[in-house]
Write a structure and sequence with these properties.
The structure holds 2 protein chains of 2 kinds. By secondary structure, chain A is mainly alpha-helical. Chain A has 21 helices and no strands. The chains are: A mainly alpha, B alpha/beta. The complex binds adenosine-5'-triphosphate and magnesium ion.
């Protein structure tokens, strides 16, 4: 990659051109924007077409409205469903939240990679060579990132407009474009915030952490706003809420573009301002360069891993606790709406669960997803130790590869189980504080229940890491994102059944609203364990590989 | 049995199409200091990473103190210490924390010697690794390895980035190691370092050990340098049997002769030679002779410089 950049830099008549950073960044951003534009476009197209074919009659559509139109669990997850009886209304509901969040994650990862990541790797020093100021470099990187966003908009827009103009879909050109704009708004805001975080922190990892925390917070705020109609005003405090307020294809509200544009512009300006005020490779927030030795954890590799992960783990724990308390506290109102239809009430009574428990059955799915991100993060941290060359310092000492990787897997398993318990307990505590009628013992089962998908993903990640280390991180995240997309897509439209089965979340029972399915859980854990063992075996027999 | 610190048996490593190491047989006796020289891409790092079990051999095997490098890695690693040319340590740990951690993982540290080393290399161990310069990180790696007083030191360009003063400190450490009876395998591009420190020297080229021996042996085996100054025109020496690397400077010429000097002497006598000087080649010349032919033989080496 370094060589690629160098040749790019020197291809212009020998001298380093003054816009080289913009062009290098743009090329990478455009490539990625094009790929994801295709994904977004086809996602919207399949949703719209699937709905049009699966629910051709008014009667079938009304059934759908009854089932999901007022379901607070679903509404909290992906926003309220307003016009489920029309193709555009359904498509907007089905795609907007999911794709805006995906776009936001893409924005964070791309902008931190292309700004801070390139800088950390020392590539800018090479390219800069006194040609431009730090501020100029940051501006150029932002311009390059902007090119990526434009391509993302155009690529997905073309497909969405082409689909939307069909007579059986009926979105119209402007409606389709507004939907595209709403999706890309997520990418724009969060890539700007990612770039800003990159100026504040001292590494790319830290920058993605800050920006992801913002995304998590804005999701949580929007979720509360959508759980209870009296809290609807909270939406205006959340960037994801603004996107929802755009209401493309139902009741478009271009006014919500104002905060989106303001936030993006402010973040961009601040990024450029801060870039001129710090050294290459340094952070703006204080970052001490020496400290007293803290040796307590450093007596072995397990302690070292814990020490290195501590900041990440603390933020995940804080996020899970906050989220759990939040879910618990809205469980009561959520449960009330859920059991308002007599038929549903009968179902839950037969199962012996309260309304709030029924609501939490939906809501805890989010915790399972969060734990899967923790699991994927563990794979990525494991690989980073190897690709950075730091692992060699341990493995040239009397420590076998199997013990090293085995210990990391054991640690990760412990972390995931602890995360599950933390999720369940904090949710229970939030519910108990609100007298929501959630019992303790089913919640213990339900909190263990969110762990197996994450353990399965961990095992699969370890297997890939053992055999093909260079693609392990991308494959792990791909499996995760695939499962997320399938899970969120399924349920309403009848997608091919074996495809739904490939989502690990789909295998999970929605405890505590239904009993925990221990057999399936055991199978998931067993597959995970087996994969991890295969990974351990492969890791012991291969070359260590750098980047 | 274990009279060898390192012994390899037809050790071979392929990366796809490139054969980085070919049927290498190398022996390092206990207490011996061996240097490995070779152009960029010759396979020095590959050899060392195979010995450490970081790479898996494509064929052949290697032993450290009679312990197989791949099936008895942990036992072998109890007896060795390693320094790489690039120090990628944990950026958030301080120097002191790094040394403590690596000592704990090694399970054997001479704490008194560690303090001596920290002082000798003028390390500020309260600084976090990310705040250290490249050379200071390298010094930290060196201290972490040397403080174990391992029976075998495996060093891959250990002094890259060190200033001349610290380079001197490093030489002191290796001299101490020799006195203690430790064995050393050292790869380097710094000829004076190898010349001063090593009992035996190996020259690796394109994955093959083309020369191995003491400096004296290598001098003996290889070419003599001959410098001649002429009254008249300088004759063409390049076609004389045994003569290589002819350099003409005005009325004088410098060349290398291997094998018998008779043909050369005959040509010189016929051409009116005024001055004649012959000497054994320096390590640098030996080295350049080998590297020079490497440039034509192997593509990697030519773009690496
Ligand atoms: N991971 C790898 N994948 C593919 N080829 C490799 C890899 N590592 C080394 N090589 C190739 O193997 C050969 C030997 O490389 P090696 O790093 O051992 O050289 P070296 O002697 O240490 O060079 P230098 O003096 O530059 O450090 C080179 O041709 C190199 O390109
Ligand atoms: Mg090397």
């Amino acid at each position: 990659m370094l060589v690629e950049v160098q040749s790019e830099a020197s291809s212009d008549s020998g001298a380093v051109s003054s816009t080289v950073i913009a062009r290098v960044t743009a090329r990478k951003a455009v490539r990625s924007g094009f790929g994801w534009g295709l994904v977004f476009g086809f996602y919207v197209a399949t949703q719209a077409l699937a709905y049009a074919t699966s629910y051709p009659t008014v009667a079938s559509r009304e059934l759908l409205v009854q089932e999901f139109g007022s379901n607070p669990g679903v509404s909290a997850l992906v926003g309220p469903a307003t016009q489920l009886d029309t193709v555009p209304g359904y498509t907007a509901w089905k795609c907007l939240a999911v794709l805006a969040i995906t776009a936001a994650v893409w924005g964070i990862l791309s902008s931190t990679r292309l700004t801070r990541g390139e800088e950390d790797a020392g590539r800018w020093e090479l390219l800069l060579a006194g040609q431009t100021t730090r501020r100029g470099a940051a501006t150029q990187a932002l311009v390059g990132m902007g090119a990526g966003l434009v391509v993302l908009f155009i690529t997905s827009g073309v497909i969405i407009v082409a689909t939307g103009r069909r007579s059986d879909i009926g979105m119209g050109t402007s409606g389709a474009l507004f939907l595209t704009l709403a999706i890309v708004a997520g990418a724009a805001m969060f890539s700007a915030l990612g770039a800003l975080a990159g100026q504040l922190s001292s590494t790319r990892r830290q920058a993605s952490g800050y920006a992801s925390a913002l995304l998590g917070a804005s999701y949580a705020i929007r979720m509360v706003a959508d759980s209870d109609t009296s809290l609807g005003w909270l939406r205006w405090l959340s960037p994801l809420g603004w996107i929802e307020e755009l209401r493309p294809l139902t009741r478009p509200n271009p006014l919500a573009l104002v905060p989106i544009a303001v936030l993006t512009a402010v973040a961009v300006l601040f990024t450029v301002y801060l870039a001129g005020r710090r050294d290459l490779g340094a952070s703006t927030l204080p970052d001490r360069s020496s400290s007293k030795a803290h040796l307590r954890l450093l007596s072995g590799q397990a302690g070292l891993a814990l020490r290195l992960m501590r900041p990440t783990l603390v933020s995940w724990a804080a996020a899970i606790i906050a989220y759990g308390l939040l879910l618990g506290s809205i469980a009561k109102s959520g449960g009330k709406i859920m059991t308002s239809s007599p038929s549903m009430q009968l179902v839950f009574e037969r199962l012996g669960v309260t309304g709030a428990e029924a609501y939490l059955g939906f809501a805890l799915l989010v915790m399972a997803m969060a734990l899967c991100f923790v699991a994927a993060g563990q794979i990525s941290a494991t690989r980073a130790e190897e690709s950075s060359g730091r692992l060699e310092y341990l493995l040239v000492r009397p420590l076998s590869r199997t013990s090293w990787l085995g210990c990391r897997v054991a640690l990760a398993t412990g972390i995931l189980v602890a995360g599950g318990l933390l999720a369940g307990l904090s949710t229970w505590a939030g519910a108990a504080a609100n007298h929501a009628g959630v019992r303790f013992s089913p919640m213990i089962g339900a909190s263990i229940n969110v762990v197996p998908p994450a353990l399965l993903l961990l095992g699969v990640g370890v297997a890939v890491y053992g055999a093909l280390p260079r693609v392990a991180v991308s494959v792990t995240y791909a499996v995760l994102v695939w499962s997320l997309l399938v899970e969120i897509t399924s349920g309403v439209v009848n997608v091919n059944h074996w495809m739904i089965d490939t989502s690990m979340f789909h295998q999970m029972a929605a405890a505590p609203s239904v009993p925990v399915d221990w057999t399936t859980n055991a199978v998931m854990v067993a597959i995970g364990a087996l994969s991890a063992l295969l990974g351990l075996g492969a890791f012991a027999r291969r070359d260590l590989k750098g980047e | 049995m274990a009279s060898h610190a390192i012994e390899t048996f037809a050790l071979t490593k392929r990366f796809g199409d490139t054969e980085a190491l070919k049927d290498l047989d190398l022996e390092v006796s206990e207490g011996e200091v061996v240097g490995i020289l070779g152009p960029n891409g010759a396979g020095k790092t590959t050899l060392i990473r195979l010995l450490l079990g970081l790479l898996m051999p494509s064929a052949g095997r290697a032993e450290i103190f009679g312990l197989d490098c791949h099936s008895q890695t942990v036992e072998a690693h109890r007896r060795l210490a390693y320094v790489a040319g690039e120090s990628n340590l944990w950026p958030t740990l301080t120097g002191a924390e790094t040394l403590y951690l690596l000592g704990q993982v090694q399970g054997r540290v001479d704490t008194q010697y560690r303090e001596v080393l920290v002082e000798r290399f003028e390390l500020d161990v309260t600084k976090k690794v990310r705040a250290l310069s490249k050379g200071n990180r390298q010094k930290l790696s060196l201290v972490a390895a040397l403080m174990t007083r391992a029976d075998l030191l495996v060093l891959d360009e250990p002094t890259s980035g060190l200033d001349p003063l610290m380079e001197q400190a490093f030489r002191t450490c290796i001299a101490e190691a020799r006195v203690q009876g430790q064995s050393v395998l050292l790869s380097s591009h710094i000829l004076s370092e190898v010349e001063v420190l090593c009992d035996r020297i190996g020259i690796l080229r394109a994955g093959v050990l083309v020369e191995m021996g003491t400096l004296a042996e290598m001098r003996h085996l290889s070419a003599l340098t001959v410098e001649a100054t002429f009254d008249g025109a300088v004759p063409d020496l390049s076609r004389v049997p045994g003569v290589t690397m002819v350099e003409v400077l005005g009325s004088s010429v410098k060349c290398q002769v291997s094998g018998t000097v008779e043909p050369l002497l005959r040509v010189l006598a016929d051409s009116g030679v005024r001055e004649l000087l012959s000497r054994e080649p320096s390590l640098e010349e030996l080295f350049l002779a080998h590297y020079g032919s490497a440039t034509t033989g192997q593509s990697d080496a030519s773009n690496a410089c």
